[in-house]
Amino acid sequence: MKSANINTFPITATCPACGLLCDDIALENINHQLKVTKPNCAKTVAFFERAIGENTSLIAGKPATLQEAILKVAEILKQAHKPIFTGLGTDVQGYRALYSLSQKTSARLTHMNATSMARNLKVLQSTGWQTTTLTEVKNRADVIVCFGSDLLSHNARFFERFVDADGMFVSAKNRQVVVLGEASNQAIKSDALQAAWVLPCRATDLPSITIALRALVAGKQLKATKIAGVKVGDLQTFADKLKAAKYAVLTWVAKDLDFDHAELTIQNITETVAILNKTTRAAGLPLGGSDGDTSANNANTWLSGFALNDDALNDEHAEHDAMLWVNSFSPEKASPQTDMPLIIIGNSNIQHQAEVFIPIAIPGLDCSGTLFRVDSSVVLPLKKVRENNLPTLAEVLCQLEERLK
Amino acid sequence: MITLLKNGKLYDPAHSKNGVVEDIYIRDGRITSKPSQTEKINQTYDLTGKIVMAGAIDMHSHIGGGKVNIARMMLPEFQETKNYSEPEAHICTPNCSHMATPNTSDTGFRYIEMGYTAAFEPAILPINARQAHLEMADTPMIDKGGYAMLGNDDYFLRLLSQKADQKVINNYVAWTLHATQAIGIKVVNPGGISAFKFNQRRLNLDENNVHYQVTPREILKSLSRAVHDLGIAKPLHVHCNNLGAAGNFQTTLDTMGASDGVPMHLTHIQFHSYGTEGDKKFSSAAAQISEALNNNQHITADVGQILFGQTVTASGDSMMQHLNTKHANPKKSVIMDIECDAGCGVVPFKYRDQNYVNALQWAIGLEIFLSVEDPWRIFLTTDHPNGAPFTSYPHLIRLLMDKSFRNEVFAKLNLDAQAMSNLTSLNREYSLYEIAIMTRAGAAKLIGLNDRGHLGAGAAADITIYTDQPDREAMFAKPDYVFKDGELVVKDGKVVKVVWGKTHTTKPAFDIGVEQDLKKYFDKYHTIQLDNFKISDDEFADDGRGKIVTH
Domain count of chain A? Predict the structure, then answer.
């Protein structure tokens, strides 16, 4: 097993709390309590330092054995004609088990991030794109663009790890960061961000600004002098900067582009990249990522042949009769309100009113596992870093499948 | 438990058996010599009149890893649905696909149904190796393995440009094989994927990568030497520079000389055999390429035949695939730069028989098949899915074995392309024995799978049994029986038992001291820890169905 020897601290661990999967997390064990000694990332600290909560299964709020709980879940799923499995916050091994169960119960699978995942997928399936990965950013990117305000609240260490650090082909001081958005998270210090050129705008202005930028990069003239409050002269300077860059990286977080047809804004960004690549080098980079969304999408794609592209929670015509909510990593994220029988399998700290609750081992904390980084190409092993007696999701679902036979 | 396969007609080139009628005994998953008379035979299959071959081995097929999954993700319109019955339904899903990029369970089923018992993913990016193995672990029925890509990674290019000692390179190559759990080393567009990141758009064999000031020739020399020095059976797997470009045959010919006689395998050579003659400045150079293959004993090649229809091309060659995006059909593509390691390009293609270039590509592939004399040095591939999906192999075999069928197809092609090909003057028809060499004995020998690809005592009992039919496509599409490690898994072309297969690797000895410098490099430039780059044996065993075999 890829688990650390949990008697020998400090341990270097991998953090599943956001899409960056930082694997340089230093953990100490102080009086049987995990302590993050490096880095100072709020998400990482919250993830590793949260103690185990409810570690027994519950049926209608009353303690039950794991076997009793599994039996009860089997009963609910047997009675259901069209269950929905959602949340899906797990790793590759957990997703495989969920996929297998969904095939045997005719369940629909929809990730808690389905709406934002669909924005990127629509672009991928319409025109495709040219993208890059984090190590390329660190070593090559001389211009880094953030479309939207809030990258740091998703990926707190993005600048520290990949922009403020010197790369093989570019030094940190020679990078230029451009932000199209409002002033960013002030709590996090970054040299590059400090020196960034900020073109203030709201997220909902990005459709018109990105189409204007795309036109300017393509060499077109605009008659307007301002687009959504941004001077066209500034956009022209920005376009020229991109064209002069050796390796510009254009980033966005699909979750923050929360307006109708956001995919068209993303496509403006990726098509700007395509135009730049006619003469110089540039690449797009979708960022964000959480709760195993990239892993679920990849695993679903090789298991079924299709991307995980079902936004069932927003489907008015969906007629489901049982809901399974799986949430390993983010106990603060609640299951959807529902009248259906609700089963929750997940983090022991989830507050809930489920008919059945089964607490499970969290990959990267209570058991080993595997996750995809937000840039998809890098897949990292997760370690078990604390003692516990919780079952893994795959173990629970495997037993559940037996009960469904 | 002993199984007797009685009276079959054996095509077993590793033992020079060309249609010999013999019995085969299977014990504990392996072929065994005739047991003593006192031992009980548990099961007997009467194979009188049937053709018996070892399970086929696909030595180059993109079945796992990032770019294949991107193709699936990008192209939902390529998938079709089908309902399954047991035992396929046991793991197949209503969404199982039958197109260019089938899902993992479908990949395994379609292979075994054709009598293939192993397939090798030829382009594993080391940084993405974990994904490739995850996908292959979910591919049932067949054995798997892969070739790790080097030669465009910045670590190697730094070593080469610093004129590092060959021993240092050898250690790094061996370390990569261990870390990625691969069985061979591949180089894609040597130096070109890196050069594209520095905005170079083409790279010729003796042209410098602008940043590193090293040439593809130097890269090939160094890597082929490393593979040879380390005693790795599989020669360096080479995807030449200038993929798909008119006139690229000269690069291919020159590449054959780049290793100073050290063995190299030139992959999907059809895509690298183009001249510039004729009105359209695109012509067949199959004759020159075949002649050079015949004369260069140290070179092997697989063809990468194209067949007509919709497919998708998935390659590590971001530089050339970026140029190909203008031919995308449907009009979309993904090009990626990846982790200072390599890149990828995924471009859907529709090969059309009335298109001059496509028709000629088809003819060029077949011209090479028919003109290369030694079937031990040429291999049957479509570079799945790049030339065509692997499910078209039975059709391709018929084209090779049946001259009148081949000429009938040829006569329907684009007329200008017909005028530019000498295909109808090539009278050769492959024999069953030669097919068995190309798809079994030769492939096993090339990769170094000593106990596969043959029917001798001690071999793993991967065995395929066909009914001898004049229509070779029908024959090879649907074997009567397939045994995987001694178990009957296919009967009458349908899966009767689900098995999971093994992963083949090679782990040459090396000086672990190489990790000291690698650790510094990772800490300074990479974005993951060195330890997490390496895939442990345990990661295969964790789900209880993966198993590693080291050669």
Answer: 2
> What number is the average pLDDT over the span A221-250?
97
Task: Look at B72 and A305 and tell me if their CB atoms are within 8 Å.
Answer: yes
Pair A190, A321 in one domain = no
- Mark out the alpha helices in A250-326 (DSSP H runs): 262-276, 293-304
B482 strand-pairing partners: B464, B490
* Contact between chains at B131 and A377 (C-beta distance less than 8 A): yes
A363 DSSP β-pair partners: A367
* B341 close to A (CB below 8 A): yes
Domain of B379, in residue numbers: 53-503
Is the Cβ pair A301, B69 closer than 8 Å?
yes
Asked if B338 is an interface residue toward chain A (Cβ–Cβ < 8 A), one would say yes
Expressed as residue numbers, the domain containing A283 is: 118-287
Query: Which CATH number characterizes residue A140's domain?
Result: 3.40.228.10
Tens of pLDDT, residue by residue over A153-185, are: 999 999 999 999 999 999 999 999 999 997 666
Best CA proximity match to B447, nearest among B184, B53, B186, B141: B184
| CB within 8 Å: B527 and A161 | yes
State whether residue B383 is helix, strand or coil.
coil
Q: Which residues of B touch A283 (CB under 8 A)?
A: 336-337
Q: Choose among B56, B59, B63: nearest CA to B389.
A: B63
In a domain, A180, yes or no: yes
Which of A241, A265, A287 is at the close of a domain? A287
CB of B97 less than 8 A from some CB of A: yes
Amino acid at B545: R
**pTM for the whole structure:** 0.96
Count how many domains chain B has.
1
- Give the integer Cα–Cα distance in Å for B39 and B302: 44
A28 falls within a domain = no
Q: Which of B332, B346, B529 faces A126 most closely, judged by CB atoms?
A: B332
The answer, yes or no, to whether residue B284 has pLDDT greater than 50, is: yes
- Does residue A267 belong to any structural domain of this protein? yes
Domain assignment present for B238:
yes
Q: Would you call A283 an interface residue with chain B, using a CB distance cutoff of 8 Å?
A: yes
Q: And the tokens for B432?
A: 């069953």
User: What ipTM did this prediction achieve?
Assistant: 0.96
- Each residue of B393-419: pLDDT tens digit? 999 999 999 999 999 999 999 999 999
Paired residues of B272 in beta bridges: none
**CATH (domain of B428):** 3.20.20.140
CA distances from B209 to A137, B90, B215 (A): 20, 51, 6
pLDDT of amino acid A315 = 78
